[in-house]
């Protein structure tokens, strides 16, 4: 089936998701921004039929059956609720909520409305991560015992990213660590601790997150203060796997002693894989994703809240 999307916000990430929609063969009916001029410019650029100067016009549009929300973090919950109140399916950029209780309430309301709701988390659907999931489960390299992740996005220009109540590296990127590894490891227990530094206004600009998922030791460092090496390394008893740019990975390397095997998945727009998954879920009449589930999102909300409190 073809899904008919309405896009909420003209944020930079919207362009990447937009290409995923088009590559999957779905349709973009409309785009909305609080600035009508911005919406019109984006609509003209991508030949989108309708441009609106308010989000509510998207929700009122009868041709739109699913919305993609990518406005600032503090307003995710408000817009999700509005979209669901109009019986629209919803995909919302991470984090789906800043408060764990809000996250639970959103999924409850979506089920009540009979609508599909999913937090956008492209990393889980990448072919690279599907391979690593299989390697972990089949123990091709023995047991996974440690994971090290490093990422950075120096000096973000979006004003809200420097707001301590919704921005910074924890709200902005900790989801990649938590949700990806929760999916790959499927742990029964998770313990987390964190240290971080802050800007003068209190926004967390660097964080070091340590976790134990069952018996797997994890360290994730995220910085918006300066550039770092961007990769994940999965350590097994019989070798290790390196994944450059793990949150949007197109390749990985398996290293065993002196032997290196490189696997590449060429892809222009990595969000196409999660868009395909969304289409499959809605085509089956599902109200939540079996991969990026309500439980996975709410667990992440709880762990992010713990990390923020520790910092």
TrEMBL record:
<dbReference type="Pfam" id="PF22725">
    <property type="entry name" value="GFO_IDH_MocA_C3"/>
</dbReference>
<dbReference type="InterPro" id="IPR055170">
    <property type="entry name" value="GFO_IDH_MocA-like_dom"/>
</dbReference>
<feature type="domain" description="GFO/IDH/MocA-like oxidoreductase">
    <location>
        <begin position="130"/>
        <end position="241"/>
    </location>
</feature>
<protein>
    <submittedName>
        <fullName>Gfo/Idh/MocA family oxidoreductase</fullName>
    </submittedName>
</protein>
<dbReference type="InterPro" id="IPR036291">
    <property type="entry name" value="NAD(P)-bd_dom_sf"/>
</dbReference>
<dbReference type="InterPro" id="IPR000683">
    <property type="entry name" value="Gfo/Idh/MocA-like_OxRdtase_N"/>
</dbReference>
<feature type="domain" description="Gfo/Idh/MocA-like oxidoreductase N-terminal">
    <location>
        <begin position="27"/>
        <end position="119"/>
    </location>
</feature>
<dbReference type="Pfam" id="PF01408">
    <property type="entry name" value="GFO_IDH_MocA"/>
</dbReference>
<comment type="similarity">
    <text>Belongs to the Gfo/Idh/MocA family.</text>
</comment>
<dbReference type="InterPro" id="IPR050984">
    <property type="entry name" value="Gfo/Idh/MocA_domain"/>
</dbReference>
<keyword id="KW-0560">Oxidoreductase</keyword>
